[in-house]
Amino acid sequence: MGGEAPTGGGTERRPVAGAGGLDAARLRAAVAAAEVHPLLCAVAHRTGDLSLLRREFAPDQTQLLVEGRGLTPEQEDEARRLAEAALQAHAASGGNDHELTGDELRSLFAFLVGDATTDHWEAFLTEELALPGDDPRRPSWHVDDATGPFRCAVVGAGASGIAAAHRLRQAGVTVTVFEKNEDVGGTWLENVYPGCRVDVPNQLYSFSFAQTNDWASRFSAQPDLLAYLQNTAKSLGLGECIRFRTEVTEARFDEGACEWTLTLRGPDGSETTDTFDGVVCAVGQLNRPSFPSIPGREEFEGPWFHSAAWDDSVDLAGRRVAVIGSGASAAQFVPCVVDEVSHLDVYQRTPPWLLPTENYGDPFPPAFHDLLDLLPAYGRWDRLWQFWLMHEGLLTAARVDPEWDAHTEAVSAGNDFVRSMLIDVLRAQVEDDDLFERMVPHFPPFAKRALRDDGRWAAALGRSHVDLVTTPIERITAHGVRTVGGEDHPADVLIYGTGFTASDFVAPMRVFGAGGIELNEEWDGDAQAYLGITVPGFPNFFMLYGPNTNLVINGSILIMVECQVRYVVDAIGSLLGSGHRVMSCRRDVHRRYGHEMEEGNALMAWGVADVPTWYRNAKGRVTQNWPFDLHSYWARTRQPDLADYELR
Fold first, then answer.
1. 297-353+395-496 placed in CATH 3.50.50.60
2. CB-based contact 247:178 (threshold 8 Å)
3. 3-state SS class at 253
4. pLDDT in tens, 319-365
5. Topology alike, domains 143-182+244-288+502-642 and 297-353+395-496
6. Are strands 466-469 and 242-243 parallel, antiparallel or unpaired?
7. pTM above 0.70, yes or no
């Protein structure tokens, strides 16, 4: 288990090599389609020729976000020429893949991330690279070696639930996954609006234990991501432990029996119960649509729906459509429907910052697929490279500089530089001065979610039949939207692109811990969890993608999920190995961690800016975001410390 898991969305491939060796022209095109640094690592990996890792080709660690990563175009051309020659020579010699030694792997890491950081990063990089046949994050314990069996319920079969079920089963834990939908996929099963796609490079938005080169584009569309998750679950044999169309409505801890009783609603609406030693809550943060508190919503007489529950039965062609919201989902579906409608009003409360991403929605060129056929390891090195580019990413530009006193809408000099750059990009996209002014955000970059964009958003809003409405909405009427001041905007269809109720982490499930305390009552609207995973008074209840584990601009949530899953699985192993059956987070540990999150987020743009964002809960506290780098979270979740818990 844990091998290649194809997405099922790939394209037909033609071999790059034939009986006569490598096709020179196609090889050259394939090499040109690669980024230089992962290319050199992948070629050195395959051929064993580490002389390719010349010091002059090493990435400049201070210019990782700049095209070329510090190399001149001439250096890039020379590096590609040498890589091409090495591959031709390797093919001529028989083409057997080289098996890396430990020292050679360290040399490759040193080239990619810099000599000074290698020791600090080696273990993490080895895990993320996850060479074929290697599974560094596989549990090191098995239930057969512990003090008895352990039954665990996993609630949800999205990405987090798939990872949890797989790792728990590797440890021999008896797993039952409960999924309210009829298939796996979570948010990628439910969100099917036009243009829906990920904003993290797909090699990174995938599991270390289920890598594949069968991606159609750099930023995969919803169907490809769904196919990846479904085929991964199938290849791991998880179907046998998943109960579909079964919703967990309640989880209640029995202190006497030291077990959890789950109330389950089946496909026919009937309720049953089942008991477990532990519960892993993998319901995600972005799964319950949020509707704005606008008067008159129920008065509208035409069809309406939320982007998270897209209604294909509603024909938009030739109709006046009102889109409420201008965030991530609207920025994806509006450009897809703008040519269908007769008129489009987009109601914007706060303009988003747009991160320029060339070819964001475009497929890979054929030459890139040739590269992956010729050099399969490129996908893994590219994954590692994408991680390295994003592990810190623009995080430094989001940090607050207490000494920054310039009178700009920024939190530091770096933040102000990014702001200026993004405004320049937007100005180049928007000729109309009035539209430009309405699209410019007046808050620091990264204070709320920034959106990847290749110019489509500005192009859609600039169409003659589109109005970007920035006057606040007074109410919804029977036939449209009335803005403050009494102006009526007629609409045939309303689409809500207003996000999710992200702060309700376990809703609508009700979770009762020790003493009958309900989790949401314990939180009182202000969710906290140690490492985003455990809460005092809720023994053997573990959350994935819980409070303060969301990433903003520095990596992939699936890396965070894998860290959380390893922590949970190893915590259960340590618990059983200690001869105990129940663990509950200590309140002093939980309290200190909460203070740390609050202090960390207070030093970030999203912690100080006065702007509406789903990062904050109703009490104004940031309960979503992890304020540090990825390596810090990995290090803290690498080995559970039972001293942080009360054991029974």
1. yes
2. yes
3. strand
4. 999 999 999 999 999 999 999 999 999 999 999 999 999 989 999 99
5. yes
6. unpaired
7. yes
Burial class of residue 299 (count of CB atoms within 10 Å of its CB; 0-12, 13-18, 19+):
exposed
Q: With left for phi above 0 and alpha for psi between -120 and 50, is residue 39 left, alpha or beta?
A: alpha
**What are the counts of helices (DSSP H) followed by strands (DSSP E) for the chain?**
20, 23
CA proximity to 371, closest of 79, 99, 26, 88: 26
Half-sphere exposure (Cβ direction) of 547: Cα atoms closer than 13 Å: 26
Domain ranges of the chain: 17-136+365-390, 143-182+244-288+502-642, 297-353+395-496
Asked whether the bond before 508 is cis by omega within 30 degrees of 0, the reply is yes
Cα Dmax for the chain: 78
C-alpha dihedral (123, 373, 59, 394), degrees to nearest 10: -70
| 619-647 pLDDT, tens digit each | 899 999 999 999 999 999 999 999 999 99
Q: Which CATH architecture has domain 143-182+244-288+502-642?
A: 3-Layer(bba) Sandwich (3.50)
CA 608 to chain centre: 24
Token output for 567: 């922590």
The answer to whether residue 287 scores a pLDDT higher than 80 is: no
% of the chain at pLDDT higher than 90: 85
Amino acid at 280: V
Q: 362, 343, 628: which is closest to 463 by C-alpha?
A: 343
* Segments of 165-222 assigned E as strands: 174-178
* Contact between residue 340 and residue 2 where contact means Cβ atoms under 8 Å apart: no
Q: Which residue has the tokens 């949020």?
A: 290
Rounded Cα distance, 605 and 443, in Å: 9
Closest residue by Cα to residue 58 from 100, 122, 117: 117
> pLDDT value at position 8?
40
Residue 498 and residue 290 in contact, taking contact as beta carbons nearer than 8 Å: yes
Distance CA 454, CA 527 (A): 36
DSSP 116-179: GGHHHHHHHHHHHH--TT--TTS-S--GGGTTS--EEEEE--SHHHHHHHHHHHHTT-EEEEE-
